[in-house]
Specification:
Strand content: 25-35%
Oligomer: single chain
Number of strands: 5
Order of helices and strands: EEEEE
Structural class: mainly beta
Largest sheet: 3 strands, antiparallel
Protein name: Ubiquitin-related modifier 1
Helix content: under 10%
Pfam family, one: Urm1
Strand order of the largest sheet: 4-3-5
Subcellular location: Cytoplasm
GO cellular component, one term: cytoplasm
Family: Belongs to the URM1 family.
């Protein structure tokens, strides 16, 4: 990825640990992960599962 913000989500060509990705309120793993092609109107959510104490 050429976008410098991608380092927030990607590490060594894989999704960073602790990032939950939802496509239209479904886990992206159920949508085929990288094989899924984003469609007009899709709702994409990136949520951190990590938290501070």
């Amino acid at each position: 990825m050429d976008d410098p913000r991608s380092e927030l989500f990607v590490l060594d060509q894989h999704l960073q640990p602790g990032i939950l990705v939802l496509i239209n309120d479904a886990d992206w793993e159920l949508e085929g992960e990288k094989a899924y092609e984003i469609q007009d109107g899709d709702n994409i959510l990136f949520a951190s599962t990590l938290h501070g104490g």
